[in-house]
């Protein structure tokens, strides 16, 4: 692996492969596999967290992981290869967005957990995907008007809220997982702390390639340690089939309920900001002009992939920011490398035994890795807010009040569990939903929609991405504002 990493790094520094160049098959395979390594931990952690929260069986969790990887592969190919006016035709990896984790858990728990909860989630995901796909076909003026709802003060607040809300999810796993017999056992915190320390050391002293897969390596080392100490069980691996095909509506027909659909629509509004930023960022890296039509094609791919995800038992999809950083680091600009990565993911999605190994990661180990990833999401939001004039009272109020709303479900849960209609609770019992909605509404009240401006590449400033991106760390992305001046924003690894 070290030799492969060295070869990739050295070759990548010299490479200027154009975005539309088809590389020789060996290079396509090597570069594509590197994208999978940088992406893998972020790809599988969402179904693991959601599945554990909904109390799914190990077999069901394995199926979720396979379905996620399989659909990730298809979605990435659609985005990078392009089908007609769908897909940006840029090296963008598609993955399940972290933005949806907390809302999906809220929807699922409101529906009683288990596979019945998945059916409600999938109904909302399919509807939101179709709505996103349709939105991206709007006339340019209407498209720009909606996107002006997300200036830096809103995106920064939403991303910060996302990280803050998700951190407790990681900490609960670090304690052993809510409801588990050994919840709070010090050994779980020992595994979490050891995994976290290993990841931080790699990120501090590791070379770029090692840093980019530090989360994945942390999960591997932590799980191996737990296995040697008798705390990681792989009995379900032997029970799993070698080959398994993801089938539509595996858990049953989706249920379409009004409030979960509204909640998922809000999630997709936020993910549109993420994809927009990543599209401009990767366009700048590969030297390809990004205009309104390019962004619209990227969002159509998001919508199509999300709707497909609901059909194939997966979740909402967004462009992954850490892989945008990997494109810059390797300087390999060919979009067909991402197509190759998509093929690898489809193959992995057909191997239940590989998913069973991932599902056997102990809660403590998973919690240590997840806490690092979610903390980096919160940091990305803070860095975006650093670009906002918070000395301006209006902006300070937007951020402060939105954060207060986001903390309400965690601090006063009784309001949602005992004093609110169950359907309304499933919509509002989410810090992400309350915080994001508050930020959008307060920005409209205090700042309005801002000036009209073209949504084209020349409106976006040059993008500078970190030299050593890490798995789970956000890359610098550009989300153009509607004043025509552009805004720099960091987007979460979604």
Automatic annotation (TrEMBL):
Q: Among its keywords, does the record have Ligase?
A: no
Localization recorded for this chain is:
Cell membrane
Can you tell me which family this protein belongs to?
A: Belongs to the nucleobase:cation symporter-2 (NCS2) (TC 2.A.40) family.
Annotated Pfam families? Xan_ur_permease
**So where does this one cross the membrane?**
28-49, 61-83, 90-110, 116-137, 149-169, 189-206, 213-230, 256-273, 336-359, 365-385, 397-416, 428-446
- The signal peptide here is none
Where are the annotated segments for Disordered?
A: 457-494
Protein name per UniProt: Purine permease
The record's annotation in InterPro entries points to: NCS2, UacT-like, Xan_ur_permease
Task: Please report the record's description of how this protein sits within the membrane.
Answer: Multi-pass membrane protein
Keyword Disulfide bond assigned: no
Which key words are in the record?
Cell membrane, Membrane, Transmembrane, Transmembrane helix, Transport
